[in-house]
Amino acid sequence: MLDLPTVRTALAEKYDLAPSPELAESMSDIYEKMNRVVSPADWAIYAPYVKAINDLKVKRNAVILGHNYMTPEIYHGVADFVGDSLQLAIKATEVEADVIVQGGVHFMAETSKILSPDKIVLMPDMEAGCSLAESITAEGVEEMRAKYPGAPVVSYVNTTAEVKAASDICCTSSNAVQIVDAMESDTVIMTPDQYLAQNVANESKKKVVYWPGSCIVHELYRPEDLRAYREFDPDVKIIAHPECTPEVVAEADFTGSTSGIVKWVKDNNPKSAMLVTECSMASNISDELPDVEFAKPCNMCPFMKKITLEKILYALDTMTGQVEVDAAVADKARLSVEAMIDLSRKLGI
Ligand code: 13P
Ligand code: SF4
Question: Most buried of the four, 80, 192, 226, 273, by CB within 10 Å?
């Protein structure tokens, strides 16, 4: 576990991280991308970290891959590429840097390491997990195979390297229906998200059987809350992530991956929108879309929020938090991830 007092003492010895309105002012081009959601006082606190991280990235030949759930100061301030799980996995295969810092959770860093075994992949906080990834092991995959002999296993990327290695192919929220439909068998096993699987089943020709995992962020939404909101604001566009229950998805005007959600809001520019997903999503796009009023509530992912500027700076400075995946496991897991990337490219996703 990261000991924050130790982290702070180590950083204070090397960097001047005191809040600085002057430095903040000199970096106003970055601040402009988040000034609707980050106060000037907070920006004066963040600016020294953003500068130190961006300087270190050059020194280390590092890139930061930031998931759409990162907080605005990470998403706009230090991330070199932002996107959903599929986009970040593809980016990990393309970047030429020596070091990848994963602005996201552990399974994403593992995916980057599986795809780029020669690069150093840094996880700023090893405890940034995921309730879905924790819900299943490779033995669970074998249990499903024994129950449904001959059925292929499509595992969500929100899984450990061992589970990916035990699967036939991976999927993300942006390609799950197409991947399942592309399987030859009539019955397809999906792990580990029961709600994604049920939402896929509602759109697919296949019989989908699934593992009973769930996302602790998306399972909290209830259809009656969305209906109540729509009653209050009949013009609101409700946009959900497919990790929500099918009952919630049925209330939505659109359902898609995190980047699918961003694209839908940018393309449609609704008067008001409720993003039925993690809180940072609305914050990260609200400056670009000043005419859209984003409805609260939202739910916070406690794992994604473990990643902070301070921990990114510490990881890059000390080169600690290096992600390792056993070579034999990585070789097998790579087949599942690459099968997904290849099929997605072929299908034009
Ligand atoms: P996306 O692939 O849609 O970005 O989802 C990842 C995730 O963890 C959502 O909870
Ligand atoms: Fe996992 Fe849910 Fe957090 Fe995404 S939002 S990382 S699925 S716990």
Answer: 192
